[in-house]
Design goal:
Distance between the termini: 38 Å
Oligomer: single chain
Shape: globular
Number of domains: 1
Number of strands: 0
Largest sheet: none
Structural class: mainly alpha
Number of helices: 14
């Protein structure tokens, strides 16, 4: 086993244990009998409707991805794009972020599209989604400042205190990093002609060109209006899936659409954490938001987080597994870009 693989394994185990640690913290001091009662007596019809909305958002995301792919002058079927996307989501449950590479790899092989170009389109759409998420965060902070102020102070106050109380340590680390970057750049400038003849440079250069072409697809696409419409629908459906899920439990059924936006934004931080499947991180942060911002009791809050996380995870496993099976069964299908 190489040192890189050993490091990756240690890193994975660390974040997995961190996730279980956060999960333990989320359930600590709660009445487990009451939590079980909340989950057992939830109105699951609302959960299934929420998952149906989620599935629709994934279909629209696949259609939006197709717009970026078409800009590169490649063709693909919506079904194939959707199956590749869901296969990637399934993989993300086990290894965070690996799914982005997998979905590009599956679609690249299936429709004969360069992997680097596809990965560039994924980077492009992720950048755009990040902008939307930042706008939502800004809206939540502006319109719910009074509700959020105490929550932000409680959970992020210690972090800022640590930063400012250790200013010189952080400054020195940042300075060393900048110096290393500058030295690496100077070394590259003095040896780049020699590096350009190496096989690894040629491969990296080719991949980088494809990646940049993929990232530029948003600027070059012809149907920008449709792309923006798809983006709006995706994020609206994300908010709607949270709002619908509120009706599962009596304690959360009174929460409004504004609360759904807040929980989506805060819950997204748990999902993007480098913890497999967001386990623990999602539970911890959603429970904290529901209890600290909206005064939902801890038993109901963790029940909501558990049900929504389990539902989303199960959806990605079932639909992702089905999608991968379809990809395998149609492997002899003629590629669109043969």
């Amino acid at each position: 086993m190489t040192s890189k693989r050993i490091f990756s394994t240690i890193q994975y185990v660390f974040f997995l244990l961190l996730g279980f640690g956060l999960l333990w913290l989320s359930f600590r001091k709660l009445n487990m009998h009451q939590v079980y009662h909340e989950i057992a007596n939830a109105h699951y019809g609302w959960l299934f409707l929420s998952l149906a909305v989620t599935l629709l958002s994934h279909i629209i995301r696949a259609a939006r991805w197709n717009l970026l792919i078409e800009t590169l002058s490649y063709k693909t079927r919506l079904s194939t794009t959707f199956y590749s996307l869901m296969t990637g989501y399934m993989v993300n449950i086990v290894v965070p972020r690996l799914g982005e590479f997998v979905r590009c790899g599956v679609l690249s092989k299936k429709e004969k599209i360069p992997f680097a170009a596809l990965f560039g389109t994924v980077v492009s759409e992720r950048i755009f989604d990040l902008i939307v998420l930042l706008l939502l965060i800004f809206m939540v902070i502006i319109f719910q400042m009074q509700l959020l102020s105490e929550f932000l102070h409680k959970f992020f106050g210690p972090f800022f205190h640590m930063v400012f109380s250790n200013f010189w340590t952080i400054f020195i680390i940042a300075l060393v990093f900048v110096i290393l970057v500058v030295l690496a750049f100077l070394y590259w400038e003095s040896n780049k002609e020699r590096f350009k003849k190496k096989a690894f440079y040629i491969k990296i250069h080719k991949f980088t060109v494809g990646l940049i072409d993929g990232i530029k697809t948003i600027k070059d696409m012809k149907r920008k209006g449709l792309f923006l419409l798809y983006t709006f629908l995706i994020w609206f459906l994300y908010i709607l899936m949270i709002y619908i899920a509120f009706f599962m439990l009596k304690e959360t059924s009174h929460l409004n659409f504004d609360a759904a936006i807040t929980i989506l934004v805060i819950g997204s931080l748990g999902i993007v954490a480098p913890v497999p499947g967001g386990i623990g991180a999602y539970h911890f942060i959603v429970k904290a938001a529901l209890t600290e911002i909206y005064n939902i009791n801890g038993n109901a809050a963790i029940s909501f987080a558990t049900l929504t996380h389990a539902g989303q995870t199960l959806l990605n496993i079932v639909v992702g597994g089905f999608s991968y099976m379809i990809i395998l069964l149609t492997k002899n299908q003629t590629p669109k870009n043969e």
